[in-house]
Structure formats: C-alpha cells, structure tokens
Amino acid sequence: MLTAECCGYPISIFFIVVNEFCERFSYYGMRAVLVLYFRYFLLWDDDLATSIYHAFVALCYLTPILGAIIADSWLGKFKTIIYLSIVYAIGQVTMAISTIHDITDANRDGTPDNFTFHIALSMLGLILIALGTGGIKPCVAAFGGDQFQEHQSRQLNTFFSVFYLCINAGSLLSTLITPVLRAQECGIHTQQQCYPLAFGVPAVLMVISLVVFIAGSGMYVKTDPEGNIMWSVCKCIGFAIKNRFRHRSSSYPKREHWMDWANEKYDKLLIAQIKMVLKVLFLYIPLPMFWTLFDQKVSICHFSGLLGGLPDQMQTVNPILILTLVPIMDRLIFPLIQKCGLNFSPLKRMTVGMLFAAMAFVSAALVQIEIDKTLPNFPSSSESQLKVVNTYSRTLNVTISPNEHLLIESFGVQLHTSKHTYSTISRMFVNGYTADLNITNLDSIEPSATTNYTLVNQGKRDFVLRHGEQWCEFSRKFGFGASYTFLIPSTVFSDDCESITEVEDMKPNSVHMALQIPQYFLITTGEVMFSVTGLQFSYSQAPKNMKSVLQAGWLCTNAVGNIIVLIVAELGKLPKQWAEYLLFASLLVAVSIIFSIMAYFYTYIDPAEIEAQVRKEQGLEPEEMEKETLEMEEKDEDQKNEQGVKQTKI
Predict the structure, then answer these.
(1) Signal sequence span per UniProt (predicted)?
(2) Is the dihedral of CA 536, 537, 540, 543 positive or negative?
C-alpha cells in the first residue's frame, strides 16, 4: 500500500504523534494533582493516598494486556484505539465531575457533605481511565510502527525516539499547567481550590486527542486482526507442555525447543512466532526492579522554595531532562559510540540504563545523609513528645511525674520526651489573650487554647488578629521545611502585635537544592537508555501479529514495579531513609548483572525473515508471491487511473 510521505516519513505519523502528545498531557496532567486531590479534597491520610495512587498506576500498566488482546485478536489496532479512547475520555470527564464540591455542599460551607458520592465517582473515573490509557498504550506505538515500509527502518527508529519525546513534552506542559489551575479558586457558592479546572482541562485534551486521531483515518495503514491470536497462543503453549509431560520418558527423542512438542497439532508458523515472543518475555523477568526505583523518584521540593513553584509542579524536572537528553543520545552519543566501533546493542543500552538508575539512588542516599544531619531528634516508635507552653507573666517550675523538673521562662516553650507512643509537633498559635481571637485564614481561638496545626507556603506571610473592633497585623518569613509556634500575650493589641513570641520548633532546610541535581540527571539518563530502547526492542523483535502483545508485556514490567512499591510500603521501611536507597540501588545492580548475562545469550532476530522462511518450508511462498503480484497490479491500475485523470484535465 502506497502512503503519502513528508520528509521521508508517512504523513499519518504526524496525526499519531499529536494524538500521543494530547493523550499524555491528559494523563500526566490528571496524575500531577491526583495525590493532592486525595489528601486535601477527599481528606485521606498519606498512606491511603499513596497506596491508591500506586494501585491506579499499576492498573494502568496491567490493562495493556487487555488492549493488546482486543487489538491483535478482534478489532485491530485502529478501532481499539478509538473505542478505548472514548472510554478514556468518559473516565476523565467523570473524574472532573467528582471534584466539584458544590454538588453535595448543601450547607454551602465549602466542604462536601457526602464524601461517599465523590469517592465512588472518582474511583469509577480512575477505573475507566486505567482501562482507556492502558488499553491504547500498546496499540498506539505499534500502530505507529505499522505505518512504515521495510525501506524506512531508520525513520522507524527515529519515530520511537520522537514518540517518547512527545510523551514527555505532554507530561512537562501538563505538570506545569494543571497545578497552576488547581491553585486558582473557583466554585458556585464557595470559592475553593479549583480541582474541577485542574481535572477538566485534561479531560478536554483527551477529547482533542480522540478527534485528531480520527481526523487521520483516511491516511493510516490498517492491518486486520488475525483471529483470536492470544487464545491460540495459550492453547498452543498448553498443548506443548501437556505433550511434553506425556512424553517425559527418556525413550522419546529430545526436541530442539520445548514448544516443538506442539508440532503434532499446531501450525509451525504459530509455533515459531510463539518462540520469538517467549524469548523476549523471558528477558523481561528482571526488568520490574528498574521501575520499582524509577517510580520512587525522590521529591525535589527544594526547587519549589527557590523558584516559587507549586509542590505538584516538581515532577517537571524529569520531562525537561528527557526532552534535552533524547535528541543528544539519539543524534550524538549513540552515533559517536558506533563510529568508535563499539557494539552498543539495545540490550547493552538497557543494562547501562539500569546502572545509571542505581547510581541515582546512591546519589540520593548521600544527599539524605546530609539532610539527616540538619534534622532535630524525633521521638522513636516507643516515645512521645510533650510541649509545655508558659503563657504566665513569670518563670514557672513544672514537675512531670515521677520526678522530672522543667524551668520555663515567661512565654517560653519546653519539649519533654518520654517512652510511650509516637507523636509529631508542627506550627501553631497559642492564645494567651483574655478573650476569643480571630486570625486570618484560621478559626476563632478561645482563651488559653491553641489552633490546629496549619501549613503555609514558604516566604513572607501576613496575619491579622481581631477581637471586636481591636485588631493588629504582623508578618513573618517562613523557611521551607521549618515548624513554628506563636505565643500570643494578653498585651497583644496594646503594643500592635509586637509582643507575639515566635518559637522555632524545627529549623528550615539548609541543604542546598543543587545537591539533588545529579540524582535527577542520572535517573533520567537511565530512563532514556532503558525505556526508549526497550520500546524499540519490543517492536523490532515481535512477529507482525503479536506486536501489541509484546508492547503490553513491556508495559507490564512497569505494573509489576509499582506492585513491588506497594508491597515494600506495606512491609515497612528501614529506620534510615538513606539505607533504604542503598538497598534498592544494590538490588538493581544485582538485577542488571543478571540481565546482562541473559542478554549475552540472546540472539537478535528478524521476525519477518523467520516467518518467510517457515512459510517457504511449508510451501506457502507461491501464495505470498501471488499476493505481491495482486498488489503490484493494483498499484499499476492506480497509476493508469491517475494518468487518465491528468489526460482528461488536459
């Protein structure tokens, strides 16, 4: 089939690339604010929010199996992408609706009255999104590869690099924009952080992605599905195992491959294709460990303080580095290595990528050791912490049973640690005034009471204290990661808030954010070498009718990695964070050594050549030649028709 080309590339590719950019913007934009939505809208704790988040990501990388089966067995890649994109868009819209607090806010206090409704709707939305994004994931890359002819192998390799660039360009823009949208205030009755806008824009982008993909319909090369291929594969493998078990006696001659025990019942071409897929899937066994590390990338919150960004924008560093490193690797590093005569094969690149990721976690461990030096001594799991505040006008001597004496000056604070259960202390206001006080953005405080612990952004913040007609204003500059207690005396209005005492419970972070740059550079370099190469390798080593299946197998390694993260989170962590980083780095080094040994014994294949050879052995070559002859005749007929049209115009 002839396809229209531009600069040596099929024009249909541009629709696929734009589609991928919009879809990735939609997915990563939603994901950028998802944990914050769990924590601050649904009011879940950190553990539950993190667990649901990783479970969602794991589901997104498990559903590609379903999408691959549908594409290669029944609908074909084109229809599968369209139908599951519709499911995807419905999921995004459902998710956006679940974030509208006014739907159940009957008393108009800014808080939903029926959290069950919002949770149910958001979970339904996430399930639909996981089905949609996971289902189309293996199909889009493989469908893009199908657009290229045999003579365009160089353009095909470049396509996968550009494809990965589009993924990260969409990720970069979405993780910059959606947090800004979230930080806006919106609402029908009460103004709250605008989660509907933050989730609504990704929903719109998903609809645009679907429209763009459909717009290129007339230009695509569409391969028909070849029946229920996955069911045939499973039955063939099952028969081979059963037949081998039946003939396990030494009296039966051995066969070259255990799949050859299916020769009695199944076609040799199918058996050859299954052998190709199994060889690659066997290589995938150690790969989830890379994703286990990658999905635990250390947060770089220090950048937020320096650049004035939002915490959910910190994920942009990774795509920025990818957009920089992919063209450098593709156009400079890899060609230079090739010119030096070194055989830097795809599997070797993936091994080096894993080692770079391991080095990133070693770098993170070194940074964590420096951070730990600046932290205060927190209570252990068998201790609790008591804070004693003296709002009296004189020094007090406090005795804590059985015989602990504390001498606390006027408007001073003393911490006392004792064996009990874990407790943490954060910033708060203590009201030493004789009446109720109203403080900006806080509830009213009764006399001799304290506010709830509150979080504020880094930098200078202004507070206004009011009681009736009396008021005063004071300002404080907050360091990132610090914790403060403010003691309000009875004379607060007579001296215009000057007498408010500030107690620094925890010092601001002093470790420079630049120390975290190397770990992000290392893990992104590892990702480029590992992930982009793995995408290309999975496509090139797959038979024509199982390319989506093998893409799904590749994506499943990511799902298993996220499941490992969940298991580790449930089992508990090491007492020291840096020790956990070193443990994961050591595990990945061990895995990379195992993978390199497996890669050494792997033989690269040309699936099309093997399939042609099997067909020739089965006497199917004339049929193929007849097919090619028919295609040439159709091509000649098209050219004649074009000439006839031109003559008519003349």
Answers:
(1) none
(2) negative
